[in-house]
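Backbone geometry tokens:
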Amino acid sequence: MPESPEVQALVDELESTLRGRTVAAVDVVEFRVSKTRSRPLTTLVGERVLGVTRHGKLLAIDFDGSEMLVVSLGRHGWARWGAGEADAASGADSVRADAEPPPPTLVSLEFDDDTVLELTDAGGWVSLGCWVVDEVNEVAAIAKHGPDPADPAFGREDFDRVAAGRRKQLKAILQEQESLAGIGNAYSDEILFAARLSPVVHAAALDDDELARLFEATTRTIRDAIAARRGVPIDRLKEAKVAAMQVHGRTREPCPGGCGGEIRDFTFASTTAQYCPECQTGGEVLPLKAEEPGG
């Protein structure tokens, strides 16, 4: 699932490439992607791009006709340039023979200089979503967003307001977009490892030093990842993210913290997560299926 560091890098590339360009054509291959049926994506034809912004894990393309295209990448969505732009960016000969087949294009936007932006979805069900709106807060997911840890103005008081004292597991709070915008499964694993905290402990059980550690790990992990992804071509962002992970996706590998333990799996809210028992749970191995209480 794309998370804020990769979405920010995508937004930066779209901004530098599309600003000032006018939409010449829109092709909607999968009608379920369009979430505003009364305002179809084809109404964007003739509109000029003013800018591109990130809102948690979503992005918005702002047009001069006051309309905005908001895109939720969902679990398996992403973006790529059409063949000409992609070849120019990474070289047509760079595709490996053993590479996975590219995900299908569900929406394409062609611009007045022949640039083509394709929105894709690699999942077995459609998770990509697009809205044509006047304001980003018309999209319910954005209207409900909590503060973004990537925001330089986000501080300890903001963090305590959404986390301190809650009878809810730390991993659930980190991934809850209404609490903290932009964090998903992978970066919540990385944050909790950096803070050396159990993913299933309740926030209410943390003392002030532990809360401070979690706040520092949250902001540092997300902000450092955004800085590290800056300038990475959008077709290489997934690879860069995977390579940077300390524990997420590292099942059975030695703990990078040097404790002598190994990374373990547990299932959380229908996804698989990773942690180090020695560093995070006092040696306790979590059950493969952990319950997620409310809070």
